[in-house]
Write a structure and sequence with these properties.
126 residues, Multidrug-efflux Transporter Regulator, Chain: A, Domain 2, single chain, two-stranded antiparallel ribbon, 2 strands, mainly alpha
């Protein structure tokens, strides 16, 4: 399939397709006419990359594991370990965001009260 069909099949913009190519996430064949040719394996690779990005994996992480993941070079235990590490990372970020929300709510309330009460403590960060 040509790029227009590939864009429709994956839901990606052309710039994203080209970026994924530059990062080595998809490697379409190039015909004698210079056109790239994509097949179903490229569609699956692009969809996996998009999902992995949405799950918080960096492009570097995706590049490092995507070929092994799709090629069954990783065991179920290895895949589980990769996902558990990302989950732990997300939980750490979630805890940080929860803390930020609490601090912002305290500041909103303090400013809303005319900044007359004692300024809320923001912990060691400030």
């Amino acid at each position: 399939m040509k790029i227009r069909e590939f864009e429709r099949a994956t839901g990606l913009k052309r710039s994203t397709v080209r970026f994924y190519e530059a990062q080595g996430l998809i490697r379409p064949e190039t015909g004698l006419n210079g056109y790239r040719h994509y097949d179903e394996s490229h569609v699956e690779a692009a969809k996996l990359a998009r999902l992995a990005q949405w799950l918080g994996f960096s492009i570097r992480e995706i590049a490092d594991i995507s070929h092994a993941w799709r090629g069954d070079a990783l065991t179920q235990a290895q895949k589980t370990d990769i996902l558990k590490r990302k989950l732990a990372e997300c939980r750490e970020k979630q805890a940080h965001l929860t803390q930020l929300v609490g601090h912002l709510e305290a500041l909103v309330n303090w400013v809303g009260a005319g900044e007359v009460a004692p300024k809320p403590s923001l912990g060691r960060r400030c």
